[in-house]
Amino acid sequence: MIRFLFLFLLLSILSSSISAQRAGSGADQIASFAEPLDFIPTTGTIGDIPVNMHGQTTYINQRYPNFNAAYSGPNSLTPDRSMSYTWSGTMFFGARLAPNTDVYFNPEVVSGIPFSGLTGLGGPTDGEATRAQGAKAHFYSARAFVRQIINQDGAKVLLEEDANQIAQTVSSNRFVITAGQFSTLDIFDDSRYAKDPRVQFMNWGNMTYLAYDYAADARGYGWGLAAEWYRDNWIFRASRMTTPYSPNVLAIDWHILDHYGDQIEVEREHFIGELPGKVSVLAYRNKMMLARFQDATNYVIQNNAQGTQAINNVRTNNQFKTGIGVNAEQALTKDLGIYMRAFTSDGHTETMAFAEADNSLSIGMGLNGQSWSRPKDSVGISMMQNGLSSFRREYLQAGGVSFFIGDYAGPGQTITYKPERIAELYYNALVVKNVLFGINYQHITNPAYNAARGPVDVYSFRLHAEF
User: How buried is residue 246: exposed, middle or buried, by Cβ count under 10 Å (0-12/13-18/19+)?
Assistant: First the structure.
């Protein structure tokens, strides 16, 4: 009953907002398209060096009640009522060493306990859980990079003051080089409506394409080089990033000429009736020591290794993994927009660093609260479908277990395969200046691609503050 009331509330808000927009009301949700300023203030200076400092902290608490499960395996989501939480704190330090050369450093601290040790779902429910390693707080460097901008002739564009961005005016035609430690997702697959689990949707499938096995360590960061070419309303991106030493571990493999994650992206921005939108296409190619599912399936059968992580026994060097996807978004009014992501990976090899999915589709919308006089509030609604390749599916159905999923519990009890489907809703409310309180609901059908388990209803709240 609670989830139906929550859904009714969100749909009512959306309906009233759309009606108000058609009547002519609106808010400047698209401030990034404002005219550039002539004078650009910075947070401060040290000597003659412009510097800035920002910070954020986020607490997410998630719970689900008991759900039906015909059986459970070694990497299943526990069917018993459970609670999960994550807490993170990040500082964002920046300095402009030269007119177009910035350096940034982000120390971070995280603690948290994810559901079932982060196993049992294709699309995990908390994007912050990628960095959680238990109740004890862990401190580490999230980012440490240099950014060089090379301006060419073009229109002036304002880059506003923000975390990891000292305000400046740049050309619409420019090259941007980023080198050092950062996340692949800092550069690729940007989205106005579904990107940041600290303030938007929480599920991994709304952080980026769920089937995009982007190069990163277990926390989602890596080292590498990225290049961007902005050409008016076109953007071309390419990068090479380090891989983990073995799949889903923190240790980095520094042999970046032998083991690496490459990606390229082409993005085109546009306006429809003065409302912004964009379409982008992204492709990746990883190379490292990985297990092929066909080899792992053969190992399970030949060695009666059901219920084990047989992929650990068949890894070979110089394996490739590839994928391609499209991301589209469009503002429908000044406070309402829609988005869509679709992606497919080749599905022959195990997950290197992200989620257990070989194809994924997500659609949704984001809205701010201008029409009900709460312009800093926001609402989001999304639907996701995640799927597995025939190779990964056969491995699981033979009794194999992979890093995040594996429901084998005895003969005939592996998975009754169906695509995993997730609906997600959230509402964020401004409590005081720069402090948000949010509620979130996720309904998961066929968790870990198994129709014999679920559905699962996850109820969440979060507190987010920044300066």
Answer: middle
- pLDDT attached to residue 53: 96
Q: Are 370 and 335 in contact (CB under 8 A)?
A: yes
End-to-end distance of the chain based on CA atoms, in angstroms?
38
Give the separation between CA 99 and CA 49, rounded to whole angstroms: 10
Q: Do residues 437 and 463 touch, judged by C-beta distance below 8 A?
A: yes
Give the SS3 label for residue 337: strand
Where is average pLDDT lowest: 4-13, 318-327, 362-371, 449-458? Answer: 4-13
Q: Could you read off the pLDDT of 429-457 as tens digits, one per residue?
A: 999 999 999 999 999 999 999 999 999 99
Give all domains of the chain, ordered by start, each with its CATH number.
50-466 (2.40.160.180)
Helical ranges in 360-425 per DSSP H: 390-397
CA distances from 82 to 4, 56, 67, 77, 94 (A): 21, 27, 10, 10, 40
What average pLDDT does this structure show over 360-387? 96
Angle at 448 between CA 352 and CA 115, to 5 degrees: 85
Tokens of 106: 């982000």
Tokens 């350096």, located at residue: 103
Place 278 in a pLDDT band, splitting at 50, 70 and 90.
very high
Dihedral in degrees, nearest 10, Cα atoms 117, 108, 221, 82 = 20
Q: Which residue, 174, 179, 175, is CA-closest to 147?
A: 179
Burial 109-130 (b: 16+ CB within 10 A, else e): bbbbbbbbebbbbbbbbbbbbb
Q: What is the CA radius of gyration of the chain?
A: 22
Full-model pTM: 0.89
**Sequence-distant (≥ 6) Cβ neighbours of residue 206 within 8 angstroms:** 127, 194, 195, 197, 200, 362, 364, 382, 384, 424
